[in-house]
């Protein structure tokens, strides 16, 4: 059997398919499973995964439609039995790609918030989206249409690193943490698409939190993510005990994250990577649904405000918006205070001692 996984979204969404990928390979051991991605970082993340045979990169957003179509046509020649749109893929473009790939059976979700023009009808099998169900399990619901599995079989997310990356990360840590201090990871950024800059907790609060942790626990703060300007601002506010930890290669970040005792992040891909690495995680959530996106199968605490309007963001091409204006706009994030995040950190650090 030949199966193609369309993981055309970002790192976090793609990573949350990894437990289902493992189950597919276990249930159909002789199968060929390939993956199609459109971001270099997702390719870097999955090309070391032992459950995949091939990872294909098509740069849909950075090349002509004609070139993309030719590359899809080449993939179509593999004559897949199934092609799968990883959850969430609630855009017409994802369904068009799935259709052009020409698999015998094309699987995607039927979304709670959708319309005719998303072209879900181009797929042969549609799986109903379930509100408040974790993304990992939404992906498992797709796999259930190919092989029999139950929710109890769905394991943790997986990230596989090569020895060369691990050795390089260990060398980097030794050079930047010569006195062997406790390391805590921060990801203060977020994607900018769909107005998701509002998923970011205030950089000044991140910086103040870092100072408190350095004073209280004698730690070093590792700043992750490719938001160079933001991370440099936070580093300057914290001082010499904050270190920029990410490079242009995503797996450099992953292998360096392994050395953290704890990770603090907005709702981003780095939060899910920390969960895959089994790090304790403090997740700072605003308008996205923590029930669907909490750090899967790792020790964690979610910090958020229980507002009548939140969570208000659902899987749709529409950008994030707020019913409030002025200073109260996105107050679900703005009103989260430093002491609330610090309390969560104290709890998790005490558990790990």
Description:
This protein is an alpha/beta fold and 353 residues long. It has two domains: 2-153, Rossmann fold (3-Layer(aba) Sandwich); 163-352, Glycogen Phosphorylase B (Rossmann fold), CATH 3.40.50. The protein has 14 helices and twelve strands. The strands form two sheets. Strands 3-2-1-4-5-6 form a six-stranded parallel β-sheet. Strand 8, helix 9 (228-238) and strand 9 (242-244) form a beta-alpha-beta unit. Helix 2 runs parallel beside helix 6, helix 8 (203-217) packs across helix 9 (228-238) and helix 8 (203-217) packs parallel to helix 14 (338-352). The N and C termini lie far apart (47 Å). The mean pLDDT is 96.
Brief account:
By secondary structure, this protein is an alpha/beta fold. The chain has 14 helices and twelve strands. It has two domains: 2-153, 3-Layer(aba) Sandwich (Rossmann fold); 163-352, 3-Layer(aba) Sandwich (Rossmann fold).
Ranges where pLDDT stays below 50 over 5 or more residues in a row are: none
β-strand amount: 15-25%
Q: What does the largest sheet look like?
A: 6 strands, parallel
Q: How many domains make up the 3D coordinates? A: 2
CATH topology term of the largest domain: Rossmann fold
Share of helical residues: 25-40%
Distance between the termini: 47 Å
CATH class placement of the largest domain: Alpha Beta
Radius of gyration: 21 Å
Can you say what the CATH homologous superfamily of the largest domain is?
Answer: Glycogen Phosphorylase B
- Using the 3D structure, state the CATH architecture of the largest domain: 3-Layer(aba) Sandwich
Mean pLDDT: 96
Q: How many separate helices?
A: 14
**Could you give the count of β-strands?**
12
Shape: globular
* Class from helix and strand fractions: alpha/beta
* Major β-sheet strand ordering: 3-2-1-4-5-6
SSE pattern: EHHEHEHEHEEHHEHEHEHEHEHEHH
């Amino acid at each position: 059997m030949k199966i193609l996984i369309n993981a055309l979204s970002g790192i976090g969404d793609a990573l949350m398919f990894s437990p289902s990928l493992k189950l597919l390979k276990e249930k159909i051991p002789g199968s060929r499973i390939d993956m199609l991605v459109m971001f270099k970082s997702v390719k870097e993340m999955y090309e070391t995964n032992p459950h995949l045979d091939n990872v294909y990169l098509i740069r849909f957003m950075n090349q002509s439609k004609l070139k993309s179509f030719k590359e899809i046509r080449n993939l179509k020649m593999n004559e897949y039995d199934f092609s799968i749109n990883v959850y969430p893929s609630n855009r017409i473009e994802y369904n068009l790609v799935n259709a052009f790939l020409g698999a015998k059976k094309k699987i995607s979700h039927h979304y709670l918030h959708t319309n005719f023009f998303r072209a879900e009808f181009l797929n042969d099998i549609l799986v109903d989206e379930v509100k408040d169900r974790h993304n990992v399990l939404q992906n498992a619901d797709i796999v259930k249409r190919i092989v029999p599995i139950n929710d109890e079989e769905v394991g943790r997310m997986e990230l596989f690193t090569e020895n060369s990356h691990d050795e390089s990360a260990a060398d980097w840590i030794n050079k930047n943490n010569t006195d062997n201090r406790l390391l805590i990871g921060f990801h203060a950024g977020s994607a900018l698409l769909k107005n998701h800059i509002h998923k970011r907790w205030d950089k000044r609060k991140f910086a103040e939190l870092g100072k408190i942790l350095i004073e209280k626990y004698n730690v070093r703060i590792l700043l992750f993510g490719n938001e160079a300007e933001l991370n440099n601002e936070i580093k300057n506010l914290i001082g010499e005990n904050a270190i920029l930890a990410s490079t242009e290669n995503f797996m450099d970040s992953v292998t360096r994250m392994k050395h953290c005792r704890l990770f603090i992040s907005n709702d981003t891909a780095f939060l899910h990577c920390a969960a895959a690495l089994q790090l304790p995680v403090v997740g700072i959530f605003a308008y996205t649904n923590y029930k669907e996106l909490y750090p899967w199968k790792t020790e964690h605490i979610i910090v958020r405000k229980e507002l009548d309007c939140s969570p208000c963001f659902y899987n749709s091409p529409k950008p994030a918006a707020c019913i409030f204006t002025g200073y109260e706009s996105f107050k679900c994030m703005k009103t989260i205070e430093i002491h609330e995040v610090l309390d969560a950190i104290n709890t998790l650090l005490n558990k790990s001692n």
